[in-house]
Design brief:
The chain has about 325 residues and is of the alpha/beta class. It has 8 helices and 16 strands. The chain has a single domain, classed as 4-Layer Sandwich (Purple Acid Phosphatase, chain A, domain 2), CATH 3.60.21.10.
């Protein structure tokens, strides 16, 4: 289900795919600061295997695995003084960091949680497979099954994370989910509209196209979908009202009280979890549905989030 078939759109996608393919093949991190560094994800996974052995030796593994499958549904009201009247009580389903092949049957767990929930729009903010490399086809069937459980009248829009590959764009029609790759779509209600902008992943694969997408001259209520919180300042400077992201898993493995041991986030790290605010923009960093590295969670529950947009003073929410 392509969002656009015009010549300019196809050329933009072609250029993006060529660039992203090069970045993926290089297996380096390309950051907004201009720095380029080696990815140590493979080494990190090896270290995690020792942690996994420790968990099993001390009979903690089963509890962590059970925690990982215990996904909660969060319902949050967000207030905006400039929300168009036609979008009062508009509901957005936010899913992030599915890593849908990390736990067998995870798509069924998520579908069960979605049963009976009401929402108008669904957005997914990246990381659909467990590994950063390897086959994509293993996630196509569970992703399609999950899509069939989502009932959003205004559609499903997704962005790519650092675990994802540019090849997902080749299967856009198969999984029947619209990818936003440095692109904006408009959702209309009568004479009112809101804009939803999705960028490519800035954690591994930053290019200036992400900044350009957020810098586009759009005069309406605007929502930014970015895999990580690190472009929060760019979105705020360009008048975005709402910023939805994930990536950190809320820490996934935390100390009592939800204190994260690792967040895999430096830029924008203070926004590693939950609801936050920067100047006039409201943001939310999801703890994610899935798990990465190891299939365990401690003191950090996976989540599905439904936001209800309401017209009112923004400071009511915090």
């Amino acid at each position: 289900m392509s969002i656009n078939n015009n010549k300019k759109y196809k050329e933009s996608r072609r250029i993006w795919a060529t660039t992203r393919a090069h970045l993926e093949a290089d297996r380096m991190k390309y950051k907004r600061s201009g720095k380029k560094s080696k990815s140590h994800w493979s080494l990190f996974e090896k270290v995690l295997q020792f942690f996994l052995i420790f968990m099993k030796l001390f009979n903690i593994y089963k509890r962590g695995y059970k925690n990982a499958k215990n996904i909660k549904v969060n319902k949050i009201d967000l207030y905006f003084p400039d929300l168009p009247c036609s979008f009062e009580n508009y509901k957005i389903l936010h899913l992030s960091d599915l890593h849908i092949d990390s736990i067998q049957g995870l798509e069924d767990i998520i579908c069960e949680k979605l049963n009976g929930l009401e929402y108008d729009l669904c957005v997914l903010t990246g990381d659909y497979r467990k590994s950063c490399q390897g086959s994509l086809k293993t996630i196509l069937r569970p992703m399609k099954k999950l899509k069939d459980c989502i009932n959003a009248n205004d559609g499903i829009y997704a962005i790519l994370g650092n675990h994802d590959t540019y090849l997902m764009a080749e299967y856009e029609d198969i999984i029947d989910i619209n990818l936003l790759i440095n692109e904006t779509v408009f959702i209309k209600r009568g004479n009112d509209k809101i804009a939803v902008t999705g960028t490519d992943d800035p954690f591994y694969y930053f290019t200036d196209q992400a900044i350009i997408a957020l810098d586009e001259n759009i005069n309406c209520f605007k929502i930014a979908l970015v895999h990580t919180p690190e472009l929060y300042d760019v979105a705020a400077e360009n008048g975005y009202n709402l910023y939805l992201c994930g990536h950190t898993h809320g820490g996934q493995i935390c100390l009592p009280g939800g204190i994260p041991i690792i967040t895999h986030q430096f830029e924008g790290r203070k926004f590693y979890k939950g609801l936050w605010k920067h100047n006039s923009i409201t943001g939310y960093t999801s703890c994610g549905c899935g798990v990465s590295g190891i299939p365990l969670r401690f003191y950090c529950q996976g989540e599905i989030t439904i936001f209800t947009l309401r017209k009112g003073e923004a400071d009511i929410i915090l």
